[in-house]
Specification:
Layout lengths: L2 E3 L6 E3 L2 E3 L8 H13 L4 E3 L7 H9 L7 E6 L4 H14 L5 E7 L13 H10 L3 E7 L3 H10 L4 E5 L6 H13 L2 E5 L10 H9 L4 E6 L3 H12 L6 H13 L20 H4 L2 H7 L3 H4 L1 H8 L9 H5 L6 H17 L1
Parallel strand pairs: 3-4, 3-10, 4-5, 5-6, 6-7, 7-8, 8-9, 9-10
Antiparallel strand pairs: 1-2
Helix pairs in contact: 1-2, 5-6
Bound molecules: iron/sulfur cluster (2 copies).
Amino acid sequence: MMNVTLGRTGMVVNRNGFGALPIQRVSHEEAVKLLRKAYNNGINFFDTAKVYSDSEYKLGLALSDVRDEIFIATKTMGKNVEEFWSDLDNSLKMLKTDYIDIYQFHNPSFCPKPNDGTGLYEAMLEAKKQGKIRFIGITNHRLSVAIDAVESGLYDTLQFPLSYLADKKEEDLVNLCKEKNVGFICMKALAGGLITKSHAAYAYLAQFGNTLPIWGVQRESELDEFISYNENPPAMDEEIKEYIESERKEIKGEFCRGCGYCMPCPVDIEINNCARMSLLLRRSPTGGHLSETGQAKMRKIENCIECGKCKENCPYALDTPNLLKRNYEDYKTFLET
Ligand code: SF4
Ligand code: SF4
């Protein structure tokens, strides 16, 4: 089995991490089945968050009896000390545990530090002192915040989006983490569903040596695919390299990653899907996107009031309202054919 050491935490984990966001969408029974199968097949790192509705509860339900054999990372979006403690205590309860291995600030717009007036970092230190958490992590979609966190020396792990569509600056961040001995947890290793060949995604990330992808798993077939990589880990070769090159040419420049940080939209546009519809139509089954429901979602783009909120909040600095319009124009050409 292929393992990764998560930087200064010294945690040695299976190279396939389990991203527990999608299990919100399946029944308790199905979630338990998936989580148990993952555990039985060597997967030992599970990433969840307070805001992923019942994901923490399902993890607790499935794996509390093997707590000391797994690693759990969860997150808080608490904006102040009170919310921090309330989130942490709630997560411990849901997860049926008395400690979190990595407790992460969930995509804050700044890097919490001691004496910044929020008290958030001090709360992390206190939680560590009390034994409620083992390590301090941060997740982010903004490169500047991520670099600040790694450079600060205050964080044991960073969770950041990384896939083979990454640019040079994002790859430099992985190397910076290596240099500073900060564990690198990769979210969106399949670029929010745009990448369809997981073996190429796996091989790309494995090259760095210090990256841990947390695959979002919702179906058993997806889980089986990742489990198979424990025995036969895909490695970079000429064929995969060429494939990645062709992908980079096709999906380049300003594309929506589907993260949803620009939402909610005041006129209820489902921006995280509508702003990348052109790619979704060319890279996934079109049935759902072109259905009556899909069309109704896209038509909402006509109601955009140009408030600019989405643009302001997009960590990738996309011109979201225009991107939506371009995607809508393209979408209509699919309806005509
Ligand atoms: S600019 Fe348009 S799409 Fe963006 S948040 Fe405002 S109404 Fe929604
Ligand atoms: S427009 Fe930006 S913030 Fe919104 S989903 Fe896409 S990448 Fe994320």
